[in-house]
Amino acid sequence: MILPNKLLIASIFVFFCTPSVAGFLDQDFTKITLKTTHVRGNIYMLEGEGGFAGGNIGVSAGKDGILLVDDQLSPMPGKINTALADINPGKLRFVLNTHWHGDHTGSNGHFSSDATIISHKNVRKRLMAEQNNFFGKSPASPKEAWPLITFEDAVNIHFNDEDIQFIHYANGHTDGDGIIYFPKSNVAHLGDHFFNGIFPFVDMDTGGNAFSLTRNIGNIIDSLPSDALVIPGHGGLSDMKGLKAYYAMLKSTTEHVKNLAAEGETLEDIQLGGLPTEWTTWGDGFVNEEHWIKIIYNSLPK
Ligand SMILES: [Zn+2]
Ligand SMILES: [Zn+2]
């Protein structure tokens, strides 16, 4: 993802991380457009441009109708419907939520009159009650935004001639993350387990952990074919090469902080020294280098 300047990055970071706080709703949503990319087979990706629409949406469109992976911020349903109408006139049947954050579940309440919402059980639990994380309070969502079907480890959705796999990975970005794999199209949507080309945000207040995230990404890579295409939660469409580059960054940076902490360095010492320079450009997105070091440090076992 190419962003024009640090100020914009900072403002996007605030929008992204404060789904409940007024910030993102102050955006001029008329300036936001959705770009549709045909990924492969039945699968499309919807990506916001001109402002922060929320996380990337995955779309399965075919003879059974439409299934969405995530549904962005609450002002986005009109633009999502317009984009979907251009792909396929079929009926929206399912929305899968990769995790509870408002930039991925904000339009649940709108779409639930047509579609059945499915998620890991902790997504429903967190949407039902006020959440308090690093960036402030998120009020409980209205009942119509709560997923109707939840699972613990995995669920299959048999739709558009695919045996779609929706699989929980524990304590990565949050405590309720699920990734989705479309085997026939050979496309995966990783939600916020994957920030393409930038340091990830990890929500430790709702069960995330940088080391578990790293382990999960290694397991996800092992589970996917080498020619899979990969939709990240944030950033542009990727593939296994891009996911492996992200994994190399996660392994290197988490090990770096862990080793220095074991030698007795404080968080401030490690931040002052910085990360190996090969990872510097990864700090140009949502989470800068200093913040990423802090997330890793605070993820160390106490
Ligand atoms: Zn997100
Ligand atoms: Zn998130």
SSE layout and pairing:
Layout: H1 6-17, E1 33-40, E2 43-49, E3 57-62, E4 65-69, H2 77-87, E5 92-96, H3 102-105, H4 108-111, E6 116-120, H5 121-127, E7 131-133, E8 136-138, E9 149-151, E10 154-159, E11 162-168, E12 178-182, E13 187-189, H6 210-223, E14 229-231, E15 238-239, H7 240-262, H8 267-273, H9 289-299
Parallel strand pairs: 4-5, 5-6, 6-9, 13-14
Antiparallel strand pairs: 1-2, 2-3, 3-4, 7-8, 10-11, 11-12, 12-13, 14-15
Helix pairs in contact: 6-7, 8-9
The structure holds zinc ion (2 copies).
The site of one zinc ion has 8 residues, from helix 3.
Summarize the structure.
This protein is of the alpha/beta class and 302 residues long.
Protein architecture, described:
It is a single chain. By secondary structure, this protein is α/β, with parallel strands linked by helices. The chain has a single domain, classed as Ribonuclease Z/Hydroxyacylglutathione hydrolase-like (Metallo-beta-lactamase, Chain A, 4-Layer Sandwich). The chain is built from nine helices and 15 strands. The strands form three sheets. Strands 1-2-3-4-5-6-9 form a seven-stranded mixed sheet. Strands 10-11-12-13-14-15 form a six-stranded mixed sheet. It has a two-stranded antiparallel ribbon with strand order 7-8. Strand 4, helix 2 and strand 5 form a beta-alpha-beta unit. It is globular. One zinc ion (ZN) binds next to helix 3. The site of one zinc ion (ZN) has 4 residues, from loops.
